[in-house]
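sry for the spam today, last one i promise. struct tokens for design, 559 residues
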């Protein structure tokens, strides 16, 4: 079996040709059979999957043309569908031309072929996951595929030295966060209706090195063609034979969280109370001992939009922590980067708001989507630090940026600028908003940290102490715990539903201003309180704790 996979990695097109011949040279049957073959081969076999060289870690120019590669990333743009010739007749036979780029000789045969046999495929522009934290990249690199002795990518410091020569240096508008990241052009043969902009995907495909034959002649559409067909020595091109949507990108769990990782998942739930206490002890250090802020930060970490109903995004948990100093904000961002898979911190200074590009926009001249800061894959934590805000006036761009951020926080959706109209895209970006006082934008939850009762500590030293506390084994356990709980379902029994209704009636009689929105917020808190305890159903104890947390939070609003 290992030899079979090795041969498949080296020459997948031989398998494509074999399937084509066994399908009686019927291109449609052959294409479907090829995709089915690779799906059966790769979907549930981590060992075979991990043998394939990864473009996230390996230098694509060191990999052979026509070899099997994989890529983990986000769909940043979906180009218009294109037509291709799946097969053609050469001097002696009908041969397949799918899952690869034709060479110059084949183009002559194409010109003589019947155009009625053309088929359609999609083209995606995929980028490495924006905001992916270092520990994730390092863990994935351990299983990057060592089939070839290919050179690894340069280190971050090496990249900075040759930034002007970076393949993507001329394509910064493709990246919302870091223009030093890799991107690739992906030809997709079975996209269907499943592909969505900004989704995380795991791709396996056939690498295509195309010889440059000079610039195409200038004319209508030539600039678009050059942009969408960059040199493969700069931007790798792959023909996808297998594509799977990713729900999480934690390398410490299997790709199939409920199958390969069932033991780890069960362990994370069994150890939930211990993990919760460990994280609370870490976060309390960031808040000078305040457990209330620590609890809300912990709930924030496992939040996600688990259901949409009309315009409501259920489960969202944007959090505004107040009375947070600038050094605290930096420390919080640094510690969260050790625990979650993706996060990005931005300083909300006047200059930044007025100059940054938050919202993606459509460039009709090149027919491409220019990225913006808020074009992030689901689950990416965005940390906004309002401490950087200085006196001055927002310009038109600053106002639009702040409005877009506020809309995403409130509704978990973002309006992309398509020139004549705004097109709304759903998001799932948990926002942690850190400020001294009341924030410029409204969040779902807020909590004010009380003034410290002891002298403030050097936050840089606090972070070092936390790093000492979090050994590799502890970090592994906590990272799994956070991801597992984020994707757990939560139930409300009939008995607890009645209990919630009765308590809500009592609370409204005591607090006339209490609304249905307050009940919704309380239920969201109860959901995450239960999950953090490893409880898949709301218990009376977790319900009482949730009510106490919300009561304390509202009392702090008057501080």
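last one done:
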């Amino acid at each position: 079996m290992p030899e079979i996979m090795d041969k498949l990695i080296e020459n997948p097109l031989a398998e494509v040709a074999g399937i084509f011949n066994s399908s009686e040279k019927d291109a449609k049957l052959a294409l479907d059979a090829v995709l089915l073959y690779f799906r059966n081969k790769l979907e549930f076999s981590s060992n075979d999957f991990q043998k394939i060289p990864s473009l996230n870690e390996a230098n694509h120019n060191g990999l052979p043309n026509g070899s099997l590669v994989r890529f983990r990333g986000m769909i940043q743009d979906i180009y218009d569908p294109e037509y291709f010739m799946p097969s053609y007749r050469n001097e002696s036979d009908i041969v397949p031309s799918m899952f690869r780029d034709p060479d110059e000789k084949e183009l002559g045969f194409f010109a003589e072929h019947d155009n009625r046999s053309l088929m359609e495929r999609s083209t995606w522009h995929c980028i490495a996951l924006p905001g992916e934290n270092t520990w994730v990249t390092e863990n994935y690199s351990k299983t990057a595929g060592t089939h070839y002795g290919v050179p690894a990518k340069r280190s971050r410091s090496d990249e900075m030295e040759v930034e002007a020569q970076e393949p993507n240096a001329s394509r910064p508008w493709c990246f919302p966060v870091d223009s030093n990241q890799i991107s690739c052009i992906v030809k997709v043969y079975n996209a269907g209706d499943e592909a969505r902009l900004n989704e995380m995907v795991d791709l396996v495909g056939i690498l295509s090195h195309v010889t440059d034959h000079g610039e195409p002649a200038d004319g209508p559409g030539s600039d678009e063609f050059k942009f969408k067909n960059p040199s493969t020595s700069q931007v790798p091109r792959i023909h996808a034979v297998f594509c799977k949507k990713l729900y999480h990108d934690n390398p410490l769990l299997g790709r199939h969280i409920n199958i390969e990782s069932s033991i780890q998942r069960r362990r994370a739930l069994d150890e939930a109370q211990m993990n919760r206490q460990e994280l609370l002890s870490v976060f309390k250090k960031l808040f000078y001992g305040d457990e209330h802020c620590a609890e809300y930060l912990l709930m924030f970490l496992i939040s996600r939009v688990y259901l949409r109903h009309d315009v409501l995004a259920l489960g969202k948990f944007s959090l505004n922590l107040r009375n947070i100093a600038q050094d605290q904000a930096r420390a919080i961002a640094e510690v969260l980067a050790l625990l979650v898979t993706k996060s990005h911190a931005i300083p909300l200074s006047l200059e930044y708001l007025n100059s940054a590009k938050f919202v993606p926009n459509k460039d009709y001249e090149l027919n491409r989507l220019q990225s913006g800061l808020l074009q992030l894959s689901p689950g990416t934590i965005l940390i906004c630090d309002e401490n950087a805000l200085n006196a001055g006036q927002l310009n038109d761009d600053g106002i639009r940026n702040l409005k877009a951020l506020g809309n995403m926080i409130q509704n978990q959706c973002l309006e992309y600028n398509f020139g004549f109209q705004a097109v709304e895209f759903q998001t799932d970006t948990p926002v942690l908003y850190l400020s001294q006082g009341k924030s410029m934008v409204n969040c779902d939850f807020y909590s004010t940290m009380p003034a410290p009762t002891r002298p403030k500590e050097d936050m840089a030293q606090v972070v070092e102490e936390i790093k000492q506390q979090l050994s590799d084994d502890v970090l592994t356990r906590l990272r799994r715990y956070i991801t597992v709980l984020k994707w757990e379902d939560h139930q409300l029994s009939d008995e607890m539903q009645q209990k919630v209704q009765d308590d809500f009636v009592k609370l409204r009689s005591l607090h006339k201003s209490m609304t249905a929105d307050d009940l919704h917020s309380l239920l969201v808190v109860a959901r995450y309180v239960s999950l953090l305890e490893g409880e898949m159903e709301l218990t009376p104890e977790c319900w009482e704790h949730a009510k106490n947390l919300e009561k304390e939070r509202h009392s702090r609003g008057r501080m």
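The chain has 19 helices and 19 strands. ok im logging off now
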